[in-house]
Write a structure and sequence with these properties.
The protein has 21 helices and 13 strands. With 574 residues, the chain is an alpha/beta fold.
Length: 574
């Protein structure tokens, strides 16, 4: 019975993340959602069981948050439903393992920190979460993205700091519950009050900085140039586009042009129209896209949009890119941007050269990655294109910010994900970039959600999913520098280094993480930290090097633990 209750409590902490996540966004549940998990982990004595317990939290969370993987796999491929469910399970197992690492080190960190263990546990969680090379960088803290009164601290310390605050809050309350269950006199006094005081102080600092940041952005916006930009959402899903293509190869293009011309007639002084990812068939300069260039020439309104570009490679075969184009002036075409970070299974098939049968799985394309972010310097903003997935990779976006952008232009095609939570999650992870870097973002999606996000990371305007609409946004172009843009994830690395020192600080061999009898857990951790980056790389070989470095550091640390274990054993025998 106790085991069943523990399994339910751990699973509940994980599964609750689905309602904390958009579209419900019950962020307030975050302040208590991890309490059941922390109370259970406190009662577990062996690292093997703690690893499994933490892993179950991660599996539950990933399966609940990313349930839309099933629909996406079914849409992207010709795999049967049961195979798609298997893909979700595999996804949850692999990317939920970081919580297993957290569980593995829970008791060691707790023991080293004494009464301050909620702080140590929160730092250890932030470290494990950051080191996990996630396919979708969904940190716990991102769900607070529409609370600028506290969230804008990410402009200094990044999202891991918000994750730290969330776990510290949960752990402090859990500490009081644990002390109550243990029959401690005045269980909610002393240590609990000190940790609560620290949490209150950190929240106060966060709110103070966020308030100052809000004032700085407001001051910058007062003198900012405004660009009026129309975000076109045609609401044509995968099947509708295929049907339109059968009727006429130009049907989709004509549809975008009709919506755009209507918007240009109805809205005065439009500077640019944005079409989503893949709106053009082929490159902007192709004959079949002459109508788009003619629209720009006739109206004087620029067009920023997505298409494809093909060129012969060194081996004579054609190389295809998922690209973005700026058409301006009399129909001129600016330098293009080729998508750098491709989505596995959708834009390329991992391992298809090693496993030929994978080529039989239907996909949307076989693209080659681009290199670098192009800065488009225009009278209406110096912007970078972020094609779909690129908009959620924070270190990648940082390159565009440092390049001088004062606007982020995200074009995407989210119809593959259906009527699920993915579009709202995708928008959330994109909007976070504006909060971290102090730059507005505009987003055009074929079936939604199209949106205008200001430099605070706040969603100013947005469309509904599966709605045919044109969103006209008056974008205040500002670039309010942030320490985070220069310093990067210093807070996450502080948590990583501090946790590593705590794990290595045992005075006796039987206090250390490599204690005899913990080989099962140690092996699982080592294999996991070595294997998961390789799986991530195979799934997406264009993932940023920073993720490899981060998880590689964790792997090196755990290998060092193994070496020290051998040294301890030999000393004991001597």
């Amino acid at each position: 019975m106790h085991l069943l209750l523990a399994i339910v409590a751990l699973g509940l902490s994980g599964a609750l993340q689905a309602v904390i996540s958009p579209p419900l966004n019950w962020w307030w549940l975050h302040t208590i959602s991890f309490i059941p998990a922390i109370v259970v982990l406190d009662s577990i004595d062996t690292r093997g069981k703690a690893t499994l317990a933490g892993w179950w939290i991660g599996i539950s969370a990933n399966a609940a948050i990313f349930y839309w993987v099933v629909h996406t796999v079914r849409t992207f491929s010709n795999l049967p439903y049961i195979a798609a469910v298997g893909c979700l399970l595999a996804f949850a197992l692999v990317w939920g393992f970081y919580a297993g690492v957290w569980g593995w080190g829970f008791k060691a960190i707790q023991g080293r920190m004494g009464d301050w263990w909620p702080v140590g546990i929160a730092a250890w969680f932030a470290a494990c979460e950051y080191l996990n090379p996630q396919l979708f960088p969904y940190y716990q803290g991102v769900t607070w993205y529409q609370l600028p009164a506290i969230f804008l601290i990410v402009a200094v310390a990044g999202v891991p700091f918000i994750s730290f605050l969330i776990i510290l809050c949960n752990a402090t309350i859990a500490q009081g519950i644990i002390r109550t269950r243990a029959g401690v006199e005045r269980p909610w006094g002393g240590p609990v009050m000190r940790n609560a005081g620290l949490l209150a102080a950190l929240v106060a600092v966060s709110m103070g900085y966020s308030h100052a940041r809000l004032d700085a952005i407001e001051a910058a916006e007062a003198d900012a140039e405004i660009s009026r930009i129309a975000l076109v959402q045609s609401n044509r899903d995968v099947f509708a586009l295929r049907a339109m293509s059968k009727r006429s190869k130009s049907a989709s293009l004509d549809d975008f042009i009709a919506l755009s011309r209507d918007a240009i007639r109805e809205s005065e002084d439009l500077d640019a129209v944005v079409w989503p990812e893949g709106a053009l068939r082929g490159a902007a300069g192709y004959r079949r896209n002459a109508k788009a260039r003619r629209m720009v020439r006739d109206t004087g309104v620029e067009l920023w949009t997505g298409g494809t570009f093909s060129i012969k490679g060194d081996d004579g075969r054609r190389v295809h890119h998922n690209s973005a184009f700026r058409i301006y002036d009399q129909g001129k075409i600016d330098e293009r941007h080729d998508k750098n970070i491709l989505l596995p299974f959708g834009e390329f098939m991992p391992l298809e050269d090693l496993i030929p049968i994978l080529k039989k799985i239907q996909g949307v394309g076989n693209y080659h990655p681009g290199e670098g972010l192009e800065l488009f310097e225009t009278p209406h903003g110096d912007f970078v294109f972020l094609i779909c997935y690129e908009a959620i990779r924070h270190r990648y976006v940082r390159g565009g910010v440092r390049g001088g952008a004062d606007l982020l232009v995200n074009i995407t095609y989210d119809a593959w994900f259906g009527d699920t939570s993915n579009p709202t999650q995708h928008l959330m992870l994109s909007a976070v970039q504006s909060a971290q870097y102090g730059i507005p973002l505009i987003r055009s999606a074929t079936t939604g959600i199209s949106a205008h996000v200001d430099a605070r990371g706040m969603i100013v305007q947005q469309t509904e999913v599966f709605e045919r609409d044109v969103l006209v946004a008056d974008v205040k172009r500002v670039s309010v520098p942030t320490p985070y843009a220069s310093l990067g994830d210093w807070f996450a690395w502080l948590c990583i280094i501090g946790s590593a020192l705590l794990l290595l600080s045992g005075k006796r061999a039987d206090e250390r993480p490599w204690k005899k009898g913990h080989w099962a857990a140690w092996t699982a951790i080592t294999v996991g930290t070595l294997l998961i980056p390789k799986l991530a790389w195979l799934a997406n070989p264009y993932i940023l090097v920073g993720d490899w470095i981060a998880w590689g550091a964790a792997s090196g640390f755990l290998v060092a633990i193994g070496v020290l274990r051998v040294v301890d054993s030999r000393k004991a025998k001597a």
